[in-house]
Amino acid sequence: MNIAGKHYRTIWLDAEDPRVVRIIDQLALPHRFEIVELRRFSDALSAIKDMRVRGAGLIGATAAWGMYLAALGEGDRSLPEEAGRILKAARPTASNLAWAVDRMLRALAGPPEGRVERARREAQAISDEDAEYCRRIGLHGLRLIEQAAERKGGEPVNLLTHCNAGALAFVDYGSALAPVYAAADRGIPVHVWVDETRPRNQGASLTAWELGRYGVAYDLIADNAGGHIMQHGMVDLVITGADRVTSRGDAANKIGTYLKALAARDNGIPFYVAFPSSTFDFTMEDGFAEIPIEERDADEIRRISGQTASGGIETVRICADDTPARNWGFDVTPARYITGLITERGICDASKAGIRSLYPECEPE
Ligand code: MRU
Fold this sequence. Notes:
Elements: E1 2-3, E2 6-7, E3 11-13, E4 21-24, E5 35-38, H1 41-49, H2 56-74, H3 80-90, H4 95-108, H5 115-151, E6 157-161, H6 178-185, E7 190-195, H7 202-214, E8 217-221, H8 226-231, E9 237-240, E10 244-246, E11 251-254, H9 257-266, E12 271-274, E13 280-281, H10 287-290, H11 299-302, E14 303-307, E15 313-317, E16 330-333, E17 340-343, E18 346-348, H12 352-358
Parallel strand pairs: 6-7, 6-9, 7-8, 9-12, 10-13, 12-17
Antiparallel strand pairs: 1-2, 3-4, 4-5, 10-11, 11-16, 14-15, 17-18
Helix pairs in contact: 1-2, 1-3, 2-3, 2-4, 2-5, 3-4, 4-5, 5-6
Bound molecules: 5-S-methyl-1-O-phosphono-5-thio-D-ribulose.
5-S-methyl-1-O-phosphono-5-thio-D-ribulose binds next to β11.
């Protein structure tokens, strides 16, 4: 991701001081671009819990670096299983978090000597792989935008996305937005409809910010506008990210994604879900019945934060403080509404057979 002419990842180990991991603070965006230091396991844990980092791939990578910081802090006496258990409980829906923790636990198993170095190498490998897989997702998804551009004879391709599945949600590139960036790099005219994504507004504060920095044309829309603009022929393609995808292709993503899939189906608009293989959960089949859905603090519904005219950040109530409210973070889009899955290995049908064609290892013979 380029910010003011400099390339950034969303998380990295300091080149001069290997005791420090740095992140882009996503709570400060879009009003301030700030880098925050993680020096202890507890810093990584709170960054995930407080959503200074968020997005499936990035919480996985942060968990990996958190395990590294735990090993570093406690040397040979550390208990990686305990650190892993605490991290896994921090955010329950995205598979990437548990996947990264399990991978770190495998790397940390064995003799205590050299554990810190093994943790560093594995966390770096997880970060590098996340970025590379997202780059490849971009190239596979690019084909869909190229085909739409051909059909439109040079008119901009209008894509709709929900939440933030861009570079900020991963180590770099993003999943749903990677094809958009690949198209923009090739001069293909593309325009993105950005859902604001209540209650935490990741679309308004992160996706819009990212697209703007990249120079991609976009318009921010209210979450409820998607169906209307689809009915009016203003959307050619929907691409969202995913936080967990089951063996038959059901996909959990930010709350509200399911309604976009329904509207897309009613209007004959292709609906794709983009994610790296770390988001698969092959132990689950029926996403609706099995995927754990995070329920967050109801104050996220009752209040909203933003910048005042004087530049300060304020949180205001939008209803009476004692208003009963519920706040589910994710919903599940059944595979039958998904046109295809865009992964680092290519695009496949959202079905057991489709997934097996790209990931034969998903089901032991
Ligand atoms: O709650 P968040 O911001 O961590 O939500 C996850 C997401 O960013 C979205 O659901 C996204 O579309 C999938 S993760 C790349």
